[in-house]
Amino acid sequence: MVACGTSDRNSDKQIFRYNESAGIASLDPAFAKDQAMIWASQQLFNGLIQLDTDLTVQPAIAKRWEISADGLTYTFILRSDVYFHRNACFADGRRKVVASDFVYSFNRIVDEKVASPGRWIFDNVAVTDGSYAFSAPNDTTFVVTLKQPFAPFLGMMGMPYCSVVPHEAVEHYGADFRQNPVGTGPFRFQKWKEGVKLVLQRNPNYFERDDEGNRLPYLDAIAVTFIVDKQTVFLEFVKGNLDFMNSLDASYKDELLTRTGQLREKYAESIDMVSLPFLNTEYLGFQMEKNSSVLKDKRVRQAINCAFDRRKMMKYLRNNVGLPGCYGFIPAGLPGFDTTAGYEYDLPRAKRLLAEAGYPNGKGLPTLTLSTTSSYLDLCKYVQQQLGLAGIKTEIDVNPPGALREQIAQSKVQWFRGSWIADYPDAENYLSLFYSKNFCPQGPNYTHFNSKEFDRLYLQSKAETNDSVRAELYKRMNAIVIDEAPVVVLYYDQILHFTHKNVKGLRSNAMNALDLRRVKIEN
Q: Phi and psi (nearest 5°) for 386?
């Protein structure tokens, strides 16, 4: 039995321990829509390609690929030494991955009966007589044909949705595949007591090797706990019962970091902190389709955007970790990010907009309900206090993370706290949240924003192969989102990874990947 406490360090096993406060809803990569599930999928599964620390596309199960001159046909040549994890679902215990497995896996994502939230990523794939253009001419060749050129498509193949899964396991376990995952990744499933602990073991037959020819991964196991209270998680990390801690929480940020975002001296000798830019936009979203008449008025949404000071919020509530969200939805570091447009704190303008909407100083404006989780309660209270100065009354509804995600997906909340972590490093990924054909729960348009002009530019940008022209289209779409204000951008996030000094080899990138393949723990 693998334990989570200090007894792990008394054995000769290399066990990497981290906590997932938000919980994990499924281990099926078809449903890997949030960071918790994405991190689990990254250990259990592989796709055709992967992104390195610089977000550059690298081979994975596909050892090479070709893109046709017209940008429509992608031909992937697969490795012939990749096997699925050993499992009772296979007649011989295990089986080699072949190209038809990708045909099956991709068709599973677009199957309406599966209802994968990743179905939208294949909207640009050609369809004939109801069949998507996924084909396997032979065991090592996989081909995808698009309707029109789409430059980000190759990078999208690195998303967990595009992981290969065996039909035998899905058929054998049925709905229970979510808790009996069978993949090809560096770690394989051992046990999962939901809400308590998840244990993954080293895959001894993993296909990747390090530069010296040693088989990856180095770790023997990963142990994930699900402690909800962030203060408790911090204390467990400080005591050495967790090897890794991600991000920052209000309950311990001032204990750990200075006001300028530096690690405090008392922890500098025992803890390492790595900071990276993060392709993650934190925001408040309005439900545009099923909302009250008050929030359907653009001027009210714009007034909310103007009525709180993001820069002060970052300094005092985030210790300046991240950038204030003053420039639209596209985060810094991607084409389309535009510092000339957005919302700064402007209380007079907020009051003027409210008056124009018929609510002078907020008179007659009903109380608005903002739904969030406990992790963001301090930020939401700050927004609540600042909006009150403009005459905008709000109440805060605190929910468990899983419950809030479900309410957002079912359009049951009028105003909610959300975040969007890039699935692939292109601004199109962020703008897809506002394309009308991507309404959730099938797609990522959680606000149900609908604009014909935005849709026109979005479709134009998807077909554009010239990078500079596409970037200009992104700016125009970002400007529409700023003006229509279906969201209130809070900040563009920054990655903070905390490890103990004995943890070596942890890798990440601006999409906050959790790459544990090369991690070693020195005893």
A: -70, -40
Nearest to 287 by CA among 116, 439, 491, 135: 439
Q: From 318, 307, 336, 522, select the one nearest 428 (Cα to Cα).
A: 336
DSSP letter, residue 251: T
| Residue 164 CB partners (closer than 8 Å, separation 6+) | 45, 46, 47, 61, 97, 101, 102, 105, 183, 184
| CA–CA gap between residue 21 and residue 365 (Å, rounded) | 36
CA distance 132 to 123: 10
Above 60 in pLDDT, residue 5? no
Nearest residue to 190 (alpha-carbon basis) of 177, 179, 176, 205: 179
The highest-level CATH class for domain 278-495 is alpha beta
Digit-coded pLDDT (tens) for 253-269: 889 998 888 899 999 98
Q: Where are the domains of the chain?
A: 6-222+501-521, 278-495
The b-or-e profile of 146-181 (16+ CB within 10 A means b, else e) is beebbbbbbbbbbbbbbbbbbebbbebbeeebbbbb
What span, in angstroms and rounded, lies between the C-alpha atoms of 85 and 70?
A: 38
Contact criterion met (CB below 8 Å) for 94 and 184? no
Residues with Cβ within 8 Å of 324's Cβ and at least 6 positions away in sequence, in order, are 310, 311, 313, 314, 491
Which tokens sit at 25? 């809803």
Superfamily assignment of 6-222+501-521 in CATH? Periplasmic binding protein-like II (3.40.190.10)
pTM: 0.78
Contacts of residue 306, defined as CB under 8 A and 6 or more positions apart, other chains included, come to: 343, 344, 345, 346, 347, 349, 350, 353
